[in-house]
Write a structure and sequence with these properties.
Helix content: 25-40%
Shape: globular
Radius of gyration: 30 Å
Oligomer: single chain
Structural class: alpha+beta
Number of strands: 26
Strand order of the largest sheet: 5-6-12-13-14-15-22-19-18-17
């Protein structure tokens, strides 16, 4: 069971003035024997070199086929980069993008699916015909190279010669190599502007990864980009040198942990799983905690990476999901920086782990990360409110360095607001809410969740922020070494046509022995108004503490409803909390984990899972039975239900499970009534305790 890669090392010994050529050949064939034959064939140096000659010849034939030259091909290849990775310089103006309120379905009335990248050409008179010819040629070149896109030609000419312009364009298409591609996916769509409503005009410009205007000049000039270079924020002035700390030695395993394995173990009361890591000794795989309520949740790993969702863990991810078990990655990060030396690190092992050890405590409904770096102690507590769609990340910083410190704390999230960031990022718009001050994000192009709004917030007026990922990470930057950590502050840039993120930086000072508590909040609402109300409500003093108290109380009450006492301590630890916690938080509410982010209700899976809750949350068992009863599928099968849309996916499941579950729950409810018990959380039939046997 390996995580497969291909790695080849070739050792060379070169004398002075000597050179060597190394050829790396990769390919694919129908069988192992065919692969070996190809390998043997291309070990011949002359045959390998001939491949390059044939490729050059084929390229020339391709260009002659569409009557293009090498200069044209270079231009089209440059433009292809903006089709694959949308860039603000070739998209519509930000003011246009901000006006869009329509989703993908708005394109269907024009026979455009929206599944492929869209390129928009706007022409107005016959002087633009040459530009249209170039774009048609470009479209043909991309198709021959395997790049599919929808080319939309928008004829906005005046009434007098609009039809003449339309005929010229259609004539060029009919006599070219793209005649078969009119009004077909991956083809050409010629539309008159007078037949497009104002809302749909905005939509077409919003979805286009490239917008070429007839009055914008030659194609080469437009490709060079319209955006002016922006002046970055000034660099942080370093006034004190940073003394490197020696790497932390691996500590001896803690003796106070139950069932310790050298990296972690259960706390003495069994209510936490405690992990200790260093830069050189980590867990072999991600060890995660699923934090959730019925409509919101987050997965947090021992290194601090993870993701957050609202309503559905697959369809409405607020931040990116990744299941990479080897290289930790994610779209949420926190940083601490010494403002005097410029040295920065993360309060979690990822993405910028410090030199010292980290202690991670996964508990029921929360995770805590403890670390000390250069005399600065940090504690990051992460939890999800038991009812509201919000996650708290409470960072407590203590100064134990013996001198006053100037520090800053930065929170960073990458927005998704859909299932995959590669699909939704270009449609996400960010803004600062005038009332709550939170940094908001929305994706009006979403088919099912167009009205939803997400926010990232911290209650400190000294903060600076940005909604531009390119600014925060920098060119070729990464979460481990973001460009923003070398700048004085964040620019405040938000809006449309950005690589969307939410980053907030809070500067503060600590005297020796002093501590500071900073609360970062990541949340969502079903619409902009509700999200704003939630952001404002959660800014109240003490809200974060109250939310944590409610989380702890809920899980204490729910998991304490049934206690098991057996001769095996390992069974007791798992049965008295962890198994029920995982069933409820992970399987029923989140329907997600580190390696699987499905978000769906499975007929068979969740049905057998909820049976573990008959004594702890019987109301949830009843609700789930009714949920399944409302979702019949013809042919004697049941469906896997996506939470928000009740989308049906055919799944083989035995119908016998439903009456078995119902037969188990109905007598339980009657037993509650006979003994005057409440049909709710924590109720045990007749108050009977379950002991050994």
């Amino acid at each position: 069971m390996l995580d497969p890669v291909l790695a080849i090392r070739c050792r060379l010994v070169l004398e002075a003035e000597q050179s060597a050529t190394v050829k790396l050949v990769s390919g694919v064939a129908e069988s192992r024997a065919a692969c070996l034959a190809l390998i043997e064939k291309y070990r011949d140096r002359h045959l390998a070199e001939r491949v390059f000659d044939l490729a050059w010849t084929h390229s020339g034939v391709t260009l002659r086929q569409i009557n293009a030259g090498e200069t044209d091909a270079q231009l089209y290849r440059r433009l292809a980069g903006s089709v694959l990775y949308a860039h603000a310089s070739l998209r519509a103006e930000a003011g246009v993008l901000l006006q869009n309120r329509r989703g993908q379905s708005g394109l269907w009335g024009y026979a455009i699916s929206g599944d492929l990248p869209t390129v928009l050409l706007k022409i107005a008179d016959t002087a633009h015909v040459e530009l249209a010819r170039q774009m048609l040629q470009c479209h043909a070149y991309w198709r021959l190279k395997g790049l599919s896109d929808d080319l939309v030609i928008w004829n906005e000419g005046h009434t007098d010669y609009r039809q003449s312009l339309q005929d010229q364009v259609m004539g060029m298409i009919a006599t070219g190599t793209e005649a078969h591609a009119i009004d077909r996916p991956g083809g050409i769509y010629v539309r008159s502007a007078e037949q497009i409503s104002s809302e749909d005009r905005i939509l077409l410009q919003a979805v286009a990864r490239v917008v070429i205007a007839g009055n914008g000049g030659p194609l080469a000039e437009q490709i060079r980009g319209r955006a002016a270079a922006e002046k970055p924020m000034p660099r942080l002035a370093v006034t004190r040198s940073q003394r490197a700390e020696p790497p932390a030695a691996r500590e001896a395993p803690r003796a106070d942990l139950l069932f310790g394995n050298g990296l972690g173990g259960f706390s003495a009361d069994g209510r936490e799983y405690v992990i200790t890591t260093t830069p050189t000794h980590g867990t072999p795989m991600p060890w995660v905690n699923v934090l959730a309520n019925p409509g919101f949740g987050s997965v947090v790993s021992e290194c601090g990476s993870g993701y957050t969702w609202s309503e559905n863990a697959h369809e409405l991810r607020l931040t990116p999901w990744s299941d990479d078990p080897v290289g930790a990655s994610g779209g949420e990060a926190f940083y601490l920086r010494d403002e005097e030396s410029g040295h920065f690190w993360s309060p979690t092992p990822w993405p910028r782990g410090g030199a010292g050890p980290y202690v991670i405590r996964h508990g029921f409904g929360y995770s805590v990360f403890e670390h000390a770096e250069g005399g600065v102690q940090s504690e990051l507590s992460v939890y999800v409110d038991i009812e509201e769609a919000i996650k708290f990340s409470v960072l407590t910083v203590r100064n134990r360095s013996g001198r006053a410190r100037r520090l800053s704390a930065t929170g960073y999230v990458e927005w998704v607001l859909g299932d995959l960031r590669s699909k939704s990022a270009m449609h996400v718009v960010t803004e600062v809410d005038a009332v709550s001050g939170a940094l908001f994000a929305r994706n009006a192009y979403s088919t099912e969740f167009a009205g939803r709004a997400a926010f990232f917030d911290v209650d400190d007026i000294a903060r600076s922020l940005t909604g531009d990922r390119a600014e925060f990470l920098g060119r070729n930057g990464s979460p481990a070494s973001p460009a923003a950590m070398s700048r004085v502050r964040l620019s405040g840039k938000v809006g449309a046509a950005l690589d969307p993120c939410a980053a907030i930086q809070v500067p503060f000072e600590l005297a020796d022995g002093e501590e500071r508590r900073i609360v970062f909040r990541l949340g969502a609402g079903r619409n902009r108004e509700l999200a704003g109300r939630l952001a404002l409500k959660m800014r109240s003093a003490g809200t974060a503490r109250t939310a944590l108290t409610r989380v702890l109380e809920y899980w204490r009450h729910t998991l304490g409803a049934v206690q098991v006492d057996t001769p095996d301590p390992a069974v007791n630890v798992l049965a008295n909390g962890w198994l029920v916690y995982q069933t409820l938080a992970c399987r029923l509410w989140a329907r997600s984990g580190y390696y699987q982010s499905g978000g769906a209700f499975g007929f068979r899976d969740q049905l057998q899972d909820v049976m573990a809750l008959v004594h702890t949350e019987p109301k949830l068992v009843r609700e789930h039975l009714l949920r399944l009863r409302r979702a019949p599928v013809p042919g004697g099968r049941r469906a896997a239900l996506v939470a928000s849309r009740q989308r049906r996916r055919r799944a083989h499941a035995l119908l016998g499970r439903l009456p078995v579950a119902a037969a188990r729950v109905v007598p339980l409810r009657a037993d509650h009534r006979r003994h005057g018990g409440a049909w709710g959380a924590g109720a045990v039939p007749g108050g009977r305790a379950l002991g050994p046997g």
